[in-house]
Amino acid sequence: MEYALKASEMKACDQNTVTRIGIPSLVLMERAALAACQEAEGLIPGKGRVLVIAGSGNNGGDGLAVGRLLALAGKQVTFFMAGDSKKLTEETRAQIKILENLGFSIQGKLEAAEYDMVIDAFFGIGLSREIAGDACQVIGRMNFYKSQGAFILSLDIPSGICADTGRIMGCAVRADLTVAFAFAKRGHLLYPGREYCGRLKIKDIGIPRKAFGNTLPAAFYYEIEDAAGLLPKRAPAGNKGTFGKGLVVAGSRDMCGACLLCGRSLLKTGAGMARIISPSCNRTVIQQGIPEAVLSAFDGTPSGEKVKESLAWADAVVAGPGLGMGEEAYLLMKYLLEDTAIPMVVDADGLNLIAANGSLQELAARRQAQKLVLTPHPGELARLLNIQVQEVLKDREGAARKLAGRFSCVVVAKDAATIVVAPGEERMYINVSGNDGMASAGSGDVLAGITGGLLAQGMSAFQAASLGSYLHGLAGDYAAREKGRYGMTAGDIACSIPFVMKSLENCSA
């Protein structure tokens, strides 16, 4: 796995590298400059014009060093100091001295000119206040240069983006490329920061993971090699029961599609067997759409005894997609939540039923710790917490953690950058796979099925939720390559799951 650090975590790493490991800060700065220069040089035509906008902190020092290396390589570099000269760090002061010794000058005023590249080294990851006044004007000028055709390269993070949350701190630079040093920061992966970063490149500058000390960063994400190593193991002598039995409780009259998407996804993720509980009106569609599944159809009021029989058979449950909000749906959720031990994913109407019924909330809260996975989008999360959607969007992590604590459950807070949290734990998974073509009806049903399939194969709730989110995004990326982001559907995502699983198998072979 890869880590996504808070600003404080990165600062501690820097400090440990300098004081405990013994690598001088200026050495790290030179390595950062060299890494960024290697990315920048090929993007600048010939002896193209480069503007470096530097702040007074170490991010500014990085920028001055990058500009120096580019100038010595033959580029036409203009240096502009935008920060407060009274607040220069020791390292940035040293970089200014080097430039002076080489005969370069640093401007205190931005001149009207055209540039091929602007290097944003104004604010780094330490930004903790809203930007206004002259600083906002400098950022506006960088964005203006971009509108005129300049390539914007931000060092470590675009100026104005909060490194911890991805929030815009009043105003922010829209980069074409962000070169991040040592490790990703949370603000690189969470929106809107993720969008403002443009293309993200993470460069090694000599800060080892040993610099974490005894406390690892809380947030992490997966890359393809990580996912390949996390897939449930396949027993060569196994049978259909060996690989997990998933119970899908989904669908209602005129809402059968969610059931199909969920059930197919569960099986395509590797579960050996599936049983579906759904109203009899959906019998023909389900039998034709998922002939591999066992169907337990019911007329009228569902039988609590038959639901309990199905629960005794299953290794994991997925409940809620297309279930509706009627009395039958309420009873099904009640019967399911009365079982306190079986791993369960609740999505869509299942979440809305819990939000609307105190009795279901009480049952959910009595379940064993981390045996329940809730997968709300921002609106559902707001309903479950009885707050406004704006409050969720302002602090999605905080809202997800509050819900996780309330029901002692794992929460998959769905969004363009999905996060996964568990009760009483600092760790947080941030999903980096997927694309905007997945913003399509039924996509969440596919995610619920994938997560349920992993749960049925014995994965823990947090790991199934995290890996499931990543696989879901990979399947969406595959579908986008095949169908395009405009024309892809949730069905295309479900159909892409086997190709993703096969590619991961090949990775781990």
General description of the model:
This protein is of the alpha/beta class. Helix content is 45%, strand content 16%. It is built from 20 helices and 19 strands. A 12-stranded mixed beta sheet has the order 8-1-10-19-18-17-16-15-14-11-12-13, with helices on both faces. A 7-stranded parallel beta sheet has the order 4-3-2-5-6-7-9. α15 (378-385) packs across α17. It is elongated and about 85 Å long. It starts with a strand and ends with a helix. The model has no long low-confidence stretch (mean pLDDT 97).
Q: What would you call the shape?
A: elongated
Total of helices: 20
Mean pLDDT: 97
Spans where pLDDT lies below 50 across 5 or more residues: none
The biggest beta sheet is recorded as: 12 strands, mixed
Outline of the structure:
The chain has 20 helices and 19 strands.
Which helices and strands, and how do they pair?
Layout: E1 2-5, H1 7-21, H2 25-41, E2 49-54, H3 58-72, E3 76-81, H4 90-101, E4 106-107, E5 117-121, H5 133-147, E6 151-155, E7 177-181, E8 184-185, H6 186-189, H7 193-196, E9 199-203, E10 219-221, H8 224-230, E11 245-249, H9 257-268, E12 273-279, H10 283-289, E13 294-298, H11 304-313, E14 316-319, H12 327-338, E15 344-346, H13 349-356, H14 358-366, E16 372-374, H15 378-385, H16 389-394, H17 396-407, E17 410-413, E18 419-421, E19 428-430, H18 443-456, H19 461-483, H20 490-508
Helix pairs in contact: 2-3, 3-4, 8-20, 9-18, 9-20, 11-12, 12-14, 13-14, 13-15, 15-17, 18-19, 18-20, 19-20
Task: Record keyword descriptors for this entry.
509 residues; alpha/beta; 7-stranded parallel sheet; 19 strands; 45% helix; 16% strand; elongated
